[in-house]
Design a protein that fits this description.
The protein is of the alpha+beta class. The chain has five helices and 16 strands. The strands form two sheets. The protein has an eight-stranded mixed beta sheet with strand order 2-3-4-1-5-8-7-6, with helices on one face. An eight-stranded mixed beta sheet has the order 10-11-12-9-13-16-15-14, covered by helices on one side.
């Protein structure tokens, strides 16, 4: 198993779901991925849960507050990149042409977080770890395996994140035109996708991919649990993929990764 107890700055370290109904989301994801849930002591604050696979933490879950619900904010999977100093990173975001949509804040002893918006409009979390370093299992069945930004300006987004996090973004020869792989050192972390007119009015956004053992079976379970499969399952050069949403509209992808020959 790909276990990770610590994450280097510039690497994705966490995902969590901000949902309209926490209990409903808990039922959906524990059924689909067979996750266990761990209640976090929020010291009187909003309820927060963590999902675990084989006793290793893989993701988080919280409920949107009433103000955000009244504004029509949808259920969304959030992505976080580990940073050494959240305040320094936030200042750099502004210098590079982005903006902080959620200022850096302390989250008890867990760490410090903020949300940035890149110059093309995509929102992404930054996380300066304290007691909570992030997910402990990745790229194995029922855990995160990829992070993907869909943007209307591939060049601007790529340049922004290269300067902010030190990523390399490289054209992917096996992907459709307008796709770059996010690379840190020798590791591929995710991708940046050029949106086209076919995307309509959908704003730029990040999508999480969860690895599964059997995409077709997982797609069936998603639908049985009240979710949707928008596209697929279909075969890709790296595995069998399906584009999905949970029963409250939060989008995610599932993929059964091919085993290297």
């Amino acid at each position: 198993m790909a276990q990770q107890r610590k994450h280097d700055p510039g690497r994705f370290c966490w995902v969590d779901l901000s949902t309209l109904d926490l209990d409903r989301a808990r039922r959906f994801y524990t059924r689909v991925f067979d996750w266990d849930t761990i209640e976090v002591d929020s010291e009187g604050g909003p309820e927060y849960l963590m999902f675990a696979q084989d006793e290793m933490i893989v993701a988080g879950l919280s409920e949107l507050d009433q103000e955000l619900k009244s504004q029509g904010v949808p259920s969304t999977w959030n992505h976080y990149v580990c940073v050494e100093d959240a305040d320094d990173c936030a200042a750099r975001v502004t210098e590079l042409g982005g903006r902080m949509v959620v200022p850096v804040m302390q989250v008890l002893s867990a760490g410090r977080l903020g949300f940035l918006q890149d110059p093309t409009g995509g929102a992404l979390g930054i996380w300066e770890p304290g007691d909570h370093p992030g997910f402990e299992l990745v790229t194995e069945a029922n855990s995160v395996c990829w992070h993907e930004l869909a943007t209307r300006d591939l060049e601007t987004a790529s340049r922004f994140f290269e300067d902010l996090f030190g990523w390399n973004t490289v054209d992917n020869p096996i992907a459709p035109a307008g796709y770059r792989t996010i690379r840190s050192g020798a590791d591929d972390l995710g991708g940046i996708l050029q949106m086209t007119e076919e995307w309509g009015e959908m704003p730029p956004h990040w999508t999480v991919y969860f690895a599964v053992e059997d995409t077709d079976q997982s797609a069936e379970t998603i639908q049985e649990a009240g979710g949707k499969v928008h596209f697929g399952p279909f075969d890709t050069p790296i595995g069998r993929l399906a584009v999905c949403a949970d029963d409250q509209g939060a989008h995610f992808h599932i993929i059964a990764l091919q085993t290297p020959a």
